[in-house]
């Protein structure tokens, strides 16, 4: 089960700059820590996060092991039209998560 | 020059904590008040609090049918927002038809085995943490209200005795740090009063949500004592005492702690 | 007496063995400078226009809230197109690279990072006109007192 929390206002006035927050459950294992058996736990991180507004990319972030577990990202966007805001996380071990929310712009 | 500035900064931090410890203010306060504004904000904002990921998963589990009875929690208890409000602040409690107190996790598992005819959820499993967090969230902001059940008295006294008993290689009792020295610094960290008002908490040290039992185990390791077995009654006894000690404080679950 | 000395010697040797590979993998100020140069090339980086907000005293390095705000009109012709964050003492100098544009309206981003030790953090913003602006912060990371048994 993909465990994601997205926070975007449901409605906005055209031209408003709205805050978008995205939180996802992920261990962000750095690849630098030894496990209980003394061996290094393999790296397992989200490497890429991106957001689209009606299909057009509006924000992108390349992550590293220095991003905290359960990555949180907040950024802003100009509300220019009603539609769908899409989110995508991808990374090690074939990790892929997608989520979308709708916003009404009047 | 830079080193001097850092030194002065630390000195003023110690001075401030010393002043706070000397001010004689012995009123109870939550570990929340010992945190900086950034972590307080992380707890307060539902869209930023990582514990809310577990609350969300718990809501899904609440509505999901399971076990031989093929029943969901919601089939009997309906909307948790109405029926579960005020439940988490009462636990540990003695469930009907039994004689021993159980914590909220234990109560969830009793319901699973008796009513859903399902296997109990493993302690500290994501599912059990999620359901516990979802239930506790329904009581956020309510005062901790241990039940007025005379049968709990002796158990609570045992918990108080455990809290005050010195143990481990460092020969420390819970009370040594959290009563006698609360508010002072242990290395760079403020020693909290150890109130169970945020559990389950998202502890940054764990990078995950965890139960009070997990936190108590960390304390025992900290004083170089052998932690009680995972299913030992001591954790419930300690929780009974701690909840009584925190009676009236507001539940913050899911809390955020360093 | 002798066994005790031996034990001490063994502990010292064990410490060397475990610590050495770790230190060599750490980002040093030099490797941070190299990582920054990869992003900026030969362009000069000026201090200003960027606000790097993170707590000066960090209660746990596992999760450190951080916000980078850059002063910019965020128009098609004049906007911030990227924000990069670097650190000095983690195993690697890069923290993240964010790509943004006029659709963001405001050049403000927030996330949470890991810091292995007290150190300097640098945020660099790249404008659509090819300028680089920066801000830095020195932070103190404290360690949690009572932690997990790993066994």
Give an overview in words.
The complex is a heterotrimer of chains A (106), B (258) and C (151). Chain A has 106 residues and is mainly β. Helices cover 0% and strands 54% of the residues of chain A. Chain A has a single domain, classed as Immunoglobulins (Immunoglobulin-like). In chain A, the strands form 2 sheets. Chain A has a 5-stranded mixed beta sheet with strand order 2-8-7-4-5, with no helix packed on it. A 3-stranded antiparallel beta sheet of chain A has the order 1-3-6, with no helix packed on it. In chain A, strand 4 and strand 5 form a beta hairpin. The radius of gyration of chain A is 16 Å and the shape is elongated. In chain A, 36% of the residues are buried. By secondary structure, chain B is mostly helical. Chain B folds into 2 domains: 30-45 and 144-257, Cytochrome c-like domain (Cytochrome Bc1 Complex, Chain D, domain 2), CATH 1.10.760.10; 51-137, Cytochrome Bc1 Complex, Chain D, domain 2 (Orthogonal Bundle), CATH 1.10.760. In chain B, the strands form 2 sheets. Chain B has a 3-stranded mixed beta sheet with strand order 4-3-5. Chain B has a two-stranded antiparallel ribbon with strand order 1-2. In chain B, helix 8 (152-164) packs across helix 11 (234-245). Chain C has a single domain (27-141), classed as SoxY domain (Immunoglobulin-like, Sandwich). Residues 1-24 of chain C have low confidence and may be disordered. Chain C is built from 2 helices and 9 strands. Chain C has helices spanning 2-25, 29-40, and strands spanning 45-47, 50-53, 57-58, 64-70, 80-87, 94-99, 107-113, 119-127, 132-141. The A-C interface holds A 17, 28, 30, 32, 36, 53, 56, 58-69, 71-78, 80 and C 22, 25, 62-64, 67, 87, 90-92, 94-106, 108-115, 150-151. Strand 6 (72-78) of chain A pairs antiparallel with strand 7 (107-113) of chain C.
> How far is the first residue's CA from the last residue's CA of chain B?
31 Å
The helix count of chain B comes to: 11
Helical coverage of chain B, percent range = 40-55%
Radius of gyration of chain B, whole Å: 19 Å
What is Rg of chain A?
A: 16 Å
Q: How many domains make up the 3D coordinates of chain B?
A: 2
Largest sheet of chain B: 3 strands, mixed
Write down the oligomeric state: heterotrimer
